[in-house]
Write a structure and sequence with these properties.
two-stranded antiparallel sheet, 6 strands, elongated
Length: 152
């Protein structure tokens, strides 16, 4: 027999939601008609009576010590983060300075061209005014800009 307890989340309630999970069959999860979803059980808080649902759930773990059953749960991430990281890796692997500048401009959503950035860099070095976003490009792309301006 495996008994599980969770604190009730109703404001002001100090009760517990207690249920037995030993007989949960992962191959045959009942469908709850009240919530129109799969749920093993529908226990209530032992103080306020609020109803909860025990639904199937999974996590991704990193096993630290198999013998002790020690593991660490991985943080979830959205696919936008995955896509951004892939773009960052492509940027870091790019060796052409002109292409790196184009990729940075695109990632930041700026409307500059590579020529705009190199001209902005020259203006900045001559102590002229450049916009905040141009300074951002200069600060993050100075090495690439220097390589391109040396070739001109």
């Amino acid at each position: 027999m495996a008994i599980e307890a969770h604190r009730c989340n109703k404001p002001g309630c100090k009760g517990y939601v207690v249920f037995e999970n030993a007989d949960f069959d992962l191959k045959d999860i009942p469908r709850n008609k009240d919530i129109e979803a799969y749920a093993f059980d529908d226990p209530t808080c032992n103080e306020c009576g609020k109803r909860f649902y025990v639904v199937p759930h999974y996590i991704v773990i990193d096993v630290i010590d198999k013998g002790l059953g020690d593991y660490r749960q991985l943080d979830s991430a959205c696919m936008t983060s995955v896509g951004r990281r892939q773009e960052q890796i492509k940027y870091e692997c790019e060796t052409d300075p002109r292409r790196r500048i184009e990729m940075y401009i695109e990632r930041c959503g700026y409307t500059y061209s590579v020529t705009d950035v190199t001209l902005g860099y020259k203006e900045f070095k001559d102590h002229g005014y450049v916009s905040y976003t141009m300074k951002d490009c200069i600060n993050n792309l100075e090495n690439e800009i220097k390589i391109i301006t040396l070739k001109l």
